[in-house]
Specification:
The structure holds two protein chains of two kinds. Helices cover 0% and strands 50% of the residues of chain A. Chain A is built from no helices and eleven strands. The N and C termini of chain A lie far apart (36 Å). Chain B is mainly beta. Chain B is built from no helices and eleven strands. Classes of the chains: A mainly beta, B mainly beta. Chain A binds chain B through residues 1, 32, 34, 36, 42-46, 49, 55, 87, 89, 91-92, 94-101, and chain B through 37, 46-49, 52, 60-63, 96, 98, 101, 103-113.
Chain lengths: 107, 120
């Protein structure tokens, strides 16, 4: 199985901050990586797929980069609605796996 | 517009079998590239992929749960059904179904999820 390790697991930041979350995979997956945002009590919401393609309707302050085994999700200027948990996911090979999550909280 | 909704029991006894139904609209599992997956999330924990079925009947399962899972589709009803046998309290979780955009694509649209508690 391909293991996904997100860092940090917890992040405290302020509105307006620029934040970056990293996802490292145990083997190369080209760009078969997606990022999801999940708010308490809600289903995950797709933000980024193919490592860097913004899903329709997602604000442009979200961006993704990377290929191979290291990927990043950046939020350029945090908004109040961005405080949530973020997950990366690989779809390169089975089994499909997710990272452990990064919880982003208000400082 | 694609929508999905999970349905099934909220409480299951240990050793019983769980059957969850995902009813969807806005796409067909007869169309090339379309897939439906099941993902679960225990309270306070991370997401775990369970199973996937594609338009061409290709099925995939989490290796750790493969012996207990079965996924089927009913294209006439626009449904995908997940069956999990021999339930245990550790299977307590919110279960989601989601639309998958092709074999290399993400889960782009998710259902609201259904909470299943395994308890005697």
């Amino acid at each position: 199985d391909i293991q996904l390790t997100q860092s940090p697991s917890f992040l405290s930041a302020s509105v307006g901050d620029r934040v970056t979350i990293t996802c490292r995979t145990s083997q190369g997956i080209s760009t078969y990586l997606a990022w999801y945002q999940q708010k308490p009590g809600n289903a995950p919401n797709l933000l980024i797929y193919a490592a860097s393609t913004l899903q329709s309707g997602v604000p442009s302050r979200f961006s993704g980069t990377g290929s191979g085994s290291e990927f990043t999700l950046t939020i350029s200027s945090l908004q109040p609605e961005d405080f949530a948990t973020y997950y990366c996911q690989q779809v390169d090979s089975y089994p499909i796996t997710f990272g452990q999550g990064t919880r982003l909280e208000i400082k | 517009q694609i929508t999905l909704k999970e349905s099934g029991p909220t409480l299951v006894k240990p050793t019983q079998t769980l059957t969850l139904t995902c009813t969807f609209s806005g796409f067909s599992l007869t169309s090339t590239g379309m897939g439906v997956g099941w993902i679960r999330q225990p309270p306070g924990k991370a997401l775990e992929w369970l199973a996937l079925i594609y338009w061409d009947n290709d099925e995939s399962y989490s290796p750790s749960l493969k012996s207990r899972l079965s996924i089927t589709k009913d294209t006439s009803k626009n449904q995908a059904v997940l069956t999990m046998t021999n339930l245990d309290p550790i299977d307590t979780a919110t279960y989601y179904c989601a639309h998958k955009r092709g074999r290399g694509g993400p889960f782009d649209i998710w259902g609201q999820g259904t909470m299943v508690t395994v308890s005697s």
